[in-house]
Specification:
The complex is a heterodimer of chains A (about 400) and B (about 260). Chain A is an alpha/beta fold and about 400 residues long. Chain A has ten helices and 15 strands. Chain A has two domains: about 130 residues, no CATH class; about 240 residues, Rossmann fold (3-Layer(aba) Sandwich). In chain B, the strands form four sheets. Chain B has a nine-stranded mixed β-sheet with strand order 1-15-13-5-7-11-12-4-14, with helices on one face. A two-stranded antiparallel sheet of chain B has the order 2-3. In chain B, strands 6-10 form a two-stranded parallel ribbon. The chains are: A alpha/beta (about 400), B alpha/beta (about 260).
């Protein structure tokens, strides 16, 4: 019997300036500081421009294309994380936009490369170089796999298989060659379209799971918690009411019970055992995905109490992220706009198809994205919110 | 010897048996489900406060939550719109004498096994009376279906399909007859609801709720162990929690039966 290895993390300390790279990488973007006065692009991030000493250094999107100048293979490291993963290939890349950077190298890089910022197991941005103009699978590269959470060969729990989103997630995990998928379903007496077909899929195992019932969550965690590599919490309670157009607190309480306390119950039961398996071989516990909402960022009054429950869940997910990070288990938050389902029936298009949402979640796992804003509505709200949260509040209340 | 003394010694001598007609409250026990846009009753939920641990070193206790109509429960007349203006129509104001009464158990087991939508009719009741005697006033009429034996399988207990729920219950004439001509205290069933699963399609919808509560009578549902009661001769104790203006409550329903 071999001891399960304890998770180790690559160096995680960053200056506040350097966290700008992490903030962009969390969204799957490659951004560097670009001086607003002289236009110089710089790396590593600093407090002032290396050329003109200006402190006006906004983060700007960069292409990441460049040339591999030189490379080396580490055969020794005193850092515990890299020591366990030797040999490790690194290189110096001169980016077309100016700076020369140290990057982790994909096994098939030659002269021209495309550099991107990816989150490592410590949750911090590092630079990775892949061959330019070539679609590469990060998850199949021995080194870059460390920065992804690919579901291939992994065991996945989807907490609610009765919704269209849940079923789309299950199908996309099957396409991505997940080893097996546990599917939670509450209130077993209720029939839902598509559920019987999902139940027949050979990769699927059904489990009674109701996130409003602590006992149910505890029992499912006891049964399978030690095997779950990716947990996707898509259990959601959504009714479209503000404060004034629904009397009483019952509906709002149900939203909190599923959307907020459901996450808390799952986190208390599943997170400890997933943390213990953060380095459990090739298919370790690797990711936790929360289905939040773009309304978590700013309240959409027509769905006011739902927005509040998602804001609460978002806050709790940040706590979970902090608690999972020491084990290298990534917490991915999805912030979709309105989904094309029965609770958004009266919302005009564009609405996000459940299938599109599932594909985005898959891509986030494969590309190492931590905050996911799938669809046009979510993207637009995100930009407006980043630009001026107060203005968005006013626009949404109009 | 007084009546109560006789009762106590008969209980002590095992001549009278206490039968528990109650389902165990648990999170898995199926609960009433309405269309999702409507308000919903809370299912039974339980959270541990402490268990001889750092949250309370020497004691174990839980907080629980549920709706008034959860598990084995009592329906007061105020539960239905037809009973909303009656005097003493809530669980806290019902005269306590009404919580104790004789039970008439009508066995519909075979019929319900054959047809989940079985409706108990006036004729069926009259046939039962020919065999067991006339239903006395102020009696609980309990419809035995053995539906309680399905309670380990929530889907079978609820018995939903695309057209809704399929569980047995009384028809319109039977309910009117029991209220007007037999002056019963209330009607009890083993399934969720004193009305049949498809009773929304009867006229009026949910006749047992409509007429029973409209006449100030009560309901008991999710009963169990009715198979341990004789057709007549048992006494039922069914006292709901004293919730101010409560429309019902979960409760422990007990029956006394004489050993043959």
């Amino acid at each position: 019997m071999l001891r399960t290895r304890l998770p180790t993390l690559p160096p995680g300390a960053r200056s506040r300036a350097a966290l700008g790279l992490t903030a962009a990488a969390a969204l799957g973007r490659f951004e560097l500081q670009q001086c607003a006065d002289c236009g110089a692009v710089q790396y590593p991030p600093r407090e002032a421009c290396h050329r003109c000493l200006s402190v006006r250094l906004p983060w700007k999107k960069q292409s990441g294309e460049g040339e591999l100048l030189t490379q080396t293979v580490l055969h020794h490291s005193n850092d515990l994380f890299f020591r366990e993963r030797l040999p490790w290939r690194l290189g110096l890349v001169r980016l077309d936009c100016g700076p020369t950077v140290v990057a982790h190298l994909h096994e098939s890089v030659k002269k021209r490369v495309s550099v991107r910022a990816m989150l490592d197991r410590a949750g911090q941005a590092v630079l990775a170089a892949a061959p330019e103009k070539e679609a590469v699978n990060m998850a199949e590269d021995r080194q870059l796999r460390e920065f992804t959470c690919d579901p291939k060969f992994r065991k996945v729990l989807v907490t609610d298989g009765k919704t269209a989103v849940g079923q789309a997630l299950i199908r996309s995990f099957i396409e991505a060659k997940a080893d097996l998928i546990w599917v939670g379903h509450a209130e077993p007496w209720k029939k839902f379209p598509g559920f019987d077909e999902i139940a027949k899929l050979p990769q699927v195992t059904l489990l009674p799971l109701d996130v409003t019932d602590s006992k149910s969550v505890r029992e499912v965690a006891a049964e399978i918690g030690g095997k779950v590599d990716i947990l996707v919490n898509n259990a959601e309670f959504h009714r479209a009411f503000g404060i004034a157009n629904r009397a009483g607190v019952e509906t709002a309480r149900s939203e909190m019970d599923v959307n907020y306390f459901g996450l808390l119950r799952l986190a208390q039961e599943f997170a400890p055992v997933m943390r213990a398996r953060g380095a459990d071989g090739q298919s370790s516990a690797v990711a936790w995905v929360n289905l939040l909402s773009i309304y978590a960022l700013a309240n959409f009054p027509a769905h006011g109490t739902f927005s509040a429950s998602k804001a609460a869940a978002h806050s709790l997910a940040q706590c979970l992220r902090a608690e999972m990070r020491p084990a290298g288990v990534r917490v991915i938050n999805a912030f979709p706009g309105p989904i094309d389902d029965e609770w958004n029936q009266l919302t005009p298009p564009p609405k996000l198809a459940p299938d599109a949402l599932a594909k985005s979640v898959l891509r986030a796992l494969q590309d190492g994205i931590e905050d996911l804003y799938p669809g046009d509505v979510a993207q637009e709200w995100l930009e407006r919110w980043r630009d001026n949260p107060k203005a968005l509040e006013r626009e949404l209340s109009a | 010897m007084t009546v109560l003394n006789e009762l106590v010694s008969a209980l002590g001598a095992g001549k009278i048996r206490v039968v528990d007609l109650t389902q165990t409250l648990s999170p898995e026990f199926p609960h009433i489900s309405l269309p999702p846009e409507m308000g919903q009753a809370w299912p039974f939920r339980i959270e541990e406060v402490s268990r001889y641990d750092e949250r309370g070193p020497a004691w174990y206790w839980n907080n629980f939550s549920c709706g008034e109509h959860t598990g084995t429960h009592f329906d007061a007349p105020v539960h239905w719109v037809s009973g909303k203006d009656l005097p003493n129509n809530a669980v806290d104001t019902i005269p306590p004498a009404n919580f104790v009464g004789p039970a008439c158990v009508i066995d519909c087991t075979k019929e319900s096994a054959k047809d989940a939508d079985f409706l108990l009719t006036k004729d069926f009741i009259l046939k039962w009376e020919k065999q067991h005697g006339k239903i006395p006033p102020k009696a609980w009429v309990l419809m035995r279906t053995d539906w309680s034996k399905r309670s380990g399988d929530a889907a079978a207990y609820q018995n939903y399909d695309e057209t809704g729920q399929h569980t047995p219950g009384p028809d319109v004439e039977a309910v009117k007859f029991l209220v007007a001509e037999r002056d019963i205290l209330g009607f009890g069933t083993e399934s969720i609801g004193t009305d049949a699963g498809q009773a929304y399609h009867l006229r009026p919808p949910y006749p047992c709720h409509y007429f029973m509560h409209g006449a100030g009578r009560y309901g008991l549902q999710c009963l169990s162990n009715l198979d341990q009661l004789p057709p007549t001769g048992a006494v039922v104790f069914a006292a709901p929690l004293k919730i101010r203006n409560g429309s019902g409550s979960p409760l422990r329903v007990l029956a006394l039966t004489e050993k043959q």
